[in-house]
Design goal:
By secondary structure, the chain is α/β, with parallel strands linked by helices. The protein has a domain at about 5-190 and about 425-455: Nucleotidyltransferase, domain 5. The protein contains 18 helices and 16 strands. The protein has helices spanning about 75-80, 95-110, 130, 135-150, 160-165, 170-185, 240-255, 290-305, 315, 330-340, 350-360, 380-390, 405-410, 420-425, 425-435, 450-455, 495-500, 505-530, and strands spanning about 5, 35-45, 45-55, 65-70, 80-85, 120-125, 155-160, 165-170, 195-200, 200-210, 220, 225-235, 260-265, 285, 325-330, 410-415. The longest helix has 24 residues, at about 505-530. Belongs to the GDA1/CD39 NTPase family.
Length: about 575
């Protein structure tokens, strides 16, 4: 059991100041604010991002207030990210130097623009899912190369040891840092918020528990409980949205059989042609059957639960934590369907309207949809179905009922304010620990290097792939076994026409493939240049008709500020 000592970092949103007595590992603050900086590189599975944080001490209160100051503009955003996971860049020192230098230069130039320019700024490179998928012995050289690059910037950054500052973190730590980011600086009278995060490869859940029935808890001391919260944090590798959608394609391929080139996909709008997958390539064509898509995601969750630790059930933890914040793909998916369901993105999660919006969009004919075409649009219907299954399935999911009362109370919501958005990143929680204890450790007297070495960060070999006979479908391994029987609609006319028949000559099959490609081009041209206005009613026309949430009546405690806005104040946030 680990003790984590944190002190007041930032007061709750618009909450009155209160006097609190805590102990600190640092000398009492003076009347002159002391400004400090810290840097975190989030080395994810698909790219790396760099963040610069600032905090200052204040004379008569707990000293810590953390603000992300870089990136802060669209131009900064472009400079603060590099594409491709760090796990793919470890072939040589030169490759790693080329990969990390743009990030380090952007942070260095920004820090040098401060008055006065800071020196000895602590910097951490923390790698997540992509690096966790490697063997431990394969992680080492990549981290060594990365640490060598970072060390060449010692004029600006404080360079710690490779083991402490350039390392892979477990999914559990990622969730714990995210929980700290949401809850640091809250008073005892304010709610403790649980975290739900859906990434591309994994999901994380972290929450406080007071039941004493859950093993493997981490003790975290915050202002709201100096004696410590018992925090549960867990990750489910292979349950992320991208990996599970790959499992869906494998599942549909198993059901369709080897002789079919084109398969029906209920998790796409009618007629939408998905990107080719597999070797030899296959295509999936939408049937627009969202109910069937929900059945398949439930089947995937059931099978995944047989080989993974079960997801905690909300009814069991309700006495301990009854507010949750959904981040990453939960929030991106809810944003996307807001224009299709007449729900207010500024309010809390509305399950009924979200599900209706997803079903409405996903049952449309693809050529009639007026929607921005990008690399994410193909995943929207599946992501909605997977989100609904994870959150609401009572047998294997989180088991949220989301009654009208629970919706009114704000049981589940999203980072809809700038402060909540800044707190929705686990890097903020990591910096809170660095700022408070002088290093990424839980207590002032912890040995940071021993703590870093105590975690097994490799998940290599822990996932078992779906088995598709004689076909490499080109998707990440998962925890879900092969499927023998799944109900999948098979009435799509185009799919039945384009599938090769028996032992048809090669020239016939090639001709059919040409027809498919031409069809895709025609559909794309029609959508890009002749798209029709959507027949979906405006988001303002159907917002919570009979049960309006009044801002004065709804004091859902996220920092003492009403968690809702009036319908006239709703602002549609563009999909990320």
């Amino acid at each position: 059991m680990t003790l984590v000592t944190l002190h007041h970092v930032e007061p709750a949103i618009n909450a009155p100041r209160k006097t609190a007595t805590t102990t600190s590992a640092f000398p009492a603050p003076t009347s002159i604010p002391l400004i400090k900086y810290g840097v975190v590189i989030d080395a994810g599975s698909s790219g790396s991002r760099i963040f610069v944080y600032r905090w200052e001490t204040v004379a008569d209160e707990e000293p810590l207030k953390i603000v992300k100051i870089f990136p802060s503009t669209p131009a900064d955003e472009h400079r603060a990210v590099v594409e491709g996971g760090i796990q793919t860049k470890g072939a040589s020192q030169a490759t790693m130097d080329e990969y990390l230098t743009p990030l380090l230069l952007s942070a260095k130039e920004f820090l040098q623009s401060q008055d006065p320019p800071p020196r000895d700024v602590p910097i951490y490179l923390l790698a997540t899912g992509g690096m966790r998928s490697l063997k431990t012995q394969d992680q080492g050289p990549i981290l060594d190369f990365a640490h060598t690059v970072i060390s060449s910037y010692s004029s600006t950054f404080h360079i710690g040891t490779r083991a402490t500052t350039t390392r892979v973190i477990t999914g559990e730590l990622e969730g714990l840092y995210g929980w700290v980011a949401l809850n640091y600086g809250r008073y005892a009278s304010e709610p403790i918020v649980g975290l739900q995060e859906m990434g591309g490869a994994s999901i994380q859940i972290a929450f406080r528990d007071v039941s004493g029935r859950i093993d493997d808890m981490t003790r975290v001391c915050l202002l709201s409980a100096p004696e410590g919260h018992s925090v549960y944090s867990a990750t489910w590798d292979g349950f992320g949205a991208d990996t599970m959608r790959g499992n869906l394609l494998q599942l549909l391929s198993n059901e369709a059989g080897l002789e079919r080139w084109v398969i029906d996909n209920p998790c796409l709008p009618r007629g939408e042609v998905g990107k080719p997958f597999g070797n030899p390539p296959r295509w999936s064509v939408g049937t627009g059957d969202f109910a069937a898509c929900l059945k398949i995601t439930k089947r995937l969750l059931e099978m995944g639960s047989k080989v993974h630790e079960g997801i905690p059930s909300y009814p069991d933890i309700k006495p301990s934590t009854n507010h949750f914040l959904g981040v990453s793909n939960y929030w991106y998916t809810y944003q996307f369907f807001g224009n299709w369901g007449g729900y207010d993105l500024g309010r809390v999660y509305d399950r009924q309207r979200f599900e209706a919006a997803a079903a409405k969009y996903c049952s449309h004919t693809w050529g009639e949809l007026d929607v921005k075409v990008d690399k994410y649009v193909e995943a929207k219907c599946f992501n909605a179905a997977w989100m609904l299954t994870l959150l609401h399935d009572h047998e294997h999911g989180f088991g949220l009922e989301m009654t009208k009362y629970e919706t009114w109370r704000g049981l589940f919501r999203f980072p809809t304010t700038p402060v909540l958005a800044s707190r929705s990143s686990w890097t903020m929680g990591a910096i809170a620990l660095v700022a408070r204890h002088g290093g990424l450790k839980f207590c002032p007297d912890d040995d940071e290097e021993m703590l870093a070495l105590s975690y097994n960060t490799s998940t290599y070999g822990q996932s078992s792939p779906l088995v598709v006979p004689h076909i490499d479908v080109g998707v990440p391994p998962s925890t879900v076994p092969s499927v023998q029987e799944v109900e999948v609609p098979s009435s799509h006319v185009i799919a039945s026409i384009l599938n090769p028949i028996g032992s048809a000559p090669l020239v016939v099959n090639v001709a059919l493939l040409v027809v498919l490609i031409v069809s895709m081009v025609v559909i794309s041209y029609r959508r890009l240049y002749h798209s029709r206005p959507s027949a979906v009613p405006s988001v303002y026309n159907a917002i919570l008709e009979e049960e309006m949430f009044d801002a004065e009546e709804q004091q859902v405690l996220f920092g003492g500020r009403p968690a809702f806005v009036r319908s006239g104040e709703v602002k549609i946030i563009p999909c990320a």
